[in-house]
Amino acid sequence: MTANALHKPAVKADPAHAEMANAIRFLAIDAVEKAKSGHPGMPMGMADVATVLFSRFMKFDPADPAWPDRDRFVLSAGHGSMLLYALLHLTGYEAVTIDEIKRFRQWGAKTPGHPEYGHTPGVETTTGPLGQGIATAVGMALAERLMNARYGDDLVDHYTYVIAGDGCLMEGISHEAISLAGHLKLNRLIVLFDDNGISIDGSTGLACSDDQLGRFAASGWATCRIDGHDPEAIEKAIAAARQSDRPTMIACRTTIGFGSPGRQGSEKAHGAPLGPEEVEKTRAALHWPHRPFEVPADVLVSWREIGARGRSVRQAWKERARKQCSSDRSPCHDALNRKLPATYTERMAQFIAQLTAERPKIATRQASQHVIDVIATVLPNLLGGSADLTHSNLTKAKTQKSVTPATMDGNYIHYGVREHAMAAAINGIALHGGFIPYGGTFLAFADYNRPAIRLAALMGIRVIHVMTHDSIGLGEDGPTHQPVEHVASLRVIPNLLVFRPADAVETAEAWDCALRAETSPSVLCLSRQALPAFRTEASDHNQVALGAYVVVEPEGGRDVTLIATGSEVAIALEAAKLLAAENVQAAVVSAPCFELFRKQSAEYRAEVLGPAPRIGVEAAIEGDWARWLGDAGEFVGMHGFGASAPAEVLYREFGITPAAVADAAMRNIIRARAS
Amino acid sequence: MTANALHKPAVKADPAHAEMANAIRFLAIDAVEKAKSGHPGMPMGMADVATVLFSRFMKFDPADPAWPDRDRFVLSAGHGSMLLYALLHLTGYEAVTIDEIKRFRQWGAKTPGHPEYGHTPGVETTTGPLGQGIATAVGMALAERLMNARYGDDLVDHYTYVIAGDGCLMEGISHEAISLAGHLKLNRLIVLFDDNGISIDGSTGLACSDDQLGRFAASGWATCRIDGHDPEAIEKAIAAARQSDRPTMIACRTTIGFGSPGRQGSEKAHGAPLGPEEVEKTRAALHWPHRPFEVPADVLVSWREIGARGRSVRQAWKERARKQCSSDRSPCHDALNRKLPATYTERMAQFIAQLTAERPKIATRQASQHVIDVIATVLPNLLGGSADLTHSNLTKAKTQKSVTPATMDGNYIHYGVREHAMAAAINGIALHGGFIPYGGTFLAFADYNRPAIRLAALMGIRVIHVMTHDSIGLGEDGPTHQPVEHVASLRVIPNLLVFRPADAVETAEAWDCALRAETSPSVLCLSRQALPAFRTEASDHNQVALGAYVVVEPEGGRDVTLIATGSEVAIALEAAKLLAAENVQAAVVSAPCFELFRKQSAEYRAEVLGPAPRIGVEAAIEGDWARWLGDAGEFVGMHGFGASAPAEVLYREFGITPAAVADAAMRNIIRARAS
Q1: What's the whole-model pTM score?
Q2: ipTM exceeds 0.90
Q3: B76, B480, B491, B652: which to substitute to probe chain A, counting the most A Cβ within 10 Å?
């Protein structure tokens, strides 16, 4: 008996279906009404589909929302959050009480406006920004197949279901996600398209004429169209989808605001309370005579029975897992527990010692390649990839094997030219569990996947972005590819660790920080061009983890402090030599991660920054450097877009040179003495 | 005879075709070789297609690259820039000399790594970031139809041709663009897909299995597949596309690096010089015995004849245009000249005076709605739109009419849930000329269209983004929709004007600045919630244009300066009252546009900021505020993501209140006195 056998669909529709679906509808209606804001139309429209899905198919146990082999349910149309909260409450997730439903959209409630991962048990991913859910679900469905290839059906055998609306499918990220899922034949992915023909401006016909089925079919999906209010049709379609060898899109024709005589089928049902009068009319129309927030006992019992059904399945799974994953050192154990193995710590320390001794003059992207080669051998759950820039990002370890539909035991994903879906997919992979995913692209294209990076930061998940070609130092490709403002723009995203390492050792330390940051995503900004090694003395701790630290401390006190990141640390070091020749004592600080530096004690920060005038050096827009430089400081960097020319010409023409830094230092020392 | 008649395709292929195509190939090969960097594979592969397009169809005149009725050619696969530079040189664009070709990718050359609009005559739009070109072209093709509906075939009758590669079509933005173009039936748009089956990682089959023809067909496009090295097939396909009532995608099967015995058909031809040995082999294989950069005289003459062909067509057009657009006041004249009419200046001044007197307490998005209602009546070339948030962004004027395939005389675009394509399309509309385009979405979704906003800034074009729901002040929708870091992240994009107006008058002034910024894109960050009017005294100049200005100057000198933007100006004003009650003299500064403030004189900036401690107030991440606040300052704002709750609760819980600002002021005054 497989783990899914219990969820074999019933032959006949449950006669209580309508009541159960109405329970969802009225919890949504009542919660939106009480909050005086929210989106009732979608939960009302998709209540039938959700009821069939949860009552006849979903494998889950409200008592253990983190059970690894549960089916995943992703509400890509996140504004319909009350659909999800109603389901969580009705099936018995302890945290989602009726009181929390009543506190919909209130401060501190478990029921915020859009579903938030980590905040509400049972929410698999944060959604709301359209299209993110479906692309994140692709990552989950991919992770499931990858894990299945490693650990077999006994441990990994589940589906990923998505409810997506017109808005999700209009977003560009949906194309990337659909195309990737079709290519990889992710047959455990089932998208339920809420095909209601309405978006905020009105009929979708105002802006869209796509043949959605044709479009999904063109990307290798199975497709069908059903009446989204016919439980038997829904059941049949989902049952068929579960047997498909391809991902499936089921277009569910629904009526937005189903049951509301005055609002159904109109954009007016989408994003505002129905209003007391219309609510009463809807109660009458749907034969739901109950008070607000009241779920009749028999309906609640039916829903709770569904919620209770997964317990035995989960227990059987746990038994199997206990047998197969008992050893602390089994890869399965490490994967399921998301922990770094002890061998990693040893190997990384050894490798950093080696780099310190070898002093390679290489690009930090090359250093990163070496790091990946090393860690791939000790982290079996490392999952690499790049958005079609493998040979530029240098993201593929020698030992990594490409994933294809036929090689799901591989550990390197060719994401294609799909930066946005890649970022969302690695979010999904991290959320699914079992892997530490990273993905590569050029730093300039951080703009393409920014919405997914933001969600990773909001969710607090460990994903790692390897972003190479991190400044004008990439040279001839010119301003479209030179990320002058990207470092600054990433630094303002809360809970995102932005690293700009300056040599091979710092690159390894940055990777180490990123791997250990269990509740933060990281971006590694890496150079195309070679950088000299300066971390040539052994250290007993990870210095990048301090955010910023002193590289050169002049004897006899500082006249000036030069603070730099990445490729500009070498320039600052050269500038310090020029200044020394003029008897000016310059300290040099490397600041690979502003976020981590901010977390250090005020004393440490003051010690590093020092009381002397400060010169910041970064081949980028100033952004928030003023925070570190203070009134007596000056920034040497970019003041606009870059240009197409060899890198050394650009550094010279844009005035980011040792001489320019030394000049700025002299200028500020003199000014400080004069004042 | 229509303006296009001269470009009716010849019945037979030009026998000189191969030589002409090889001229493109070898200019590309030689330039990349000399630069030691660049992308030869695509120009070599698409030389035949480009030769047929330019020699048999394109309407253009190298003597007047800005001729409004020229056909537009967009190289969406911008890395193949040498294809474009070769065409510009061969057809006779004066600026693109053979010496500039030889200076490919060098400092200051007209031939940068990727095509740059405004830098090289004949380049219609900056490309390189994949997918942008095709989406920008949708805007151009839309603008053509809109202009045609207004001014007729005599004045507006041209095509938009795009060369797009696999990468462009994998990017999500391509879906949005294709879907929008298909919906609007933009039949003057013809996409030539460089279907070479190769991307950077290797065979596209590594990452993509899409049926591209099926996908375009699903979005309402005409499609066909041809041999991209067969001139007759290319000609036939383009000729048919020009007759279609829908946009057309022609999949051109090509061989990347065509003619290079050792590289063709391989990703190795994509992004690196062939190397001297392989170049010689290619010369032999293609029977091109000429020296590097040498174009045989007869081949150059053939190309120059093609370049000269458009002159008479353009002259005839100019004659027609002179007759129809001679009056300074004709809308056609204004549209073609992109100027604001005098009536605009009068009406805007009058409207600002009215707002100053009326003192409405309204959301700035509502104020913006009023502005749009007013300016739509005096700017016939204003073109509105929203990414499916019309009723939330309040972007549609009462007098505006929706654009549909049947109503191309309309002036409001329902872009659908396609923020990215909207931003690229308004770039294309602005580049095409004839309109001042604006588009609306939520500020949080600035992350979705950021790559296109960046390109607008890089190109220096006037497009206006109306971004509402600009802070935690949007309330219950929660952190996914609350743009805490977006204002800061937009401020770091060079040449982008980011406005955050604080009341109705400032909103009108910000709109005025944006409309007058002919070489900068603008983002208007607008509140969902109502804000009190404080600009209640008439001003003889646009104060927002100063970037920041003093709203309250206390008599007897300042103890502290409170600097705020947007919705927080009201909080700063309240804080000043609290401080006044304690006998503390607080100045209040409104800082609606940091970029414009930076452009003011040092004296003016010092006067506004003042010598007293400074408190910055913005319901957002600090970003680059330290630049204004200095060592003695403090920032009152957000320190992480928002939350779902009513707006007033959020302001209280996150400590952005008059009392908190007053506390910060007292703290800093005391600290300053102590030091």
Answers
A1: 0.97
A2: yes
A3: B480
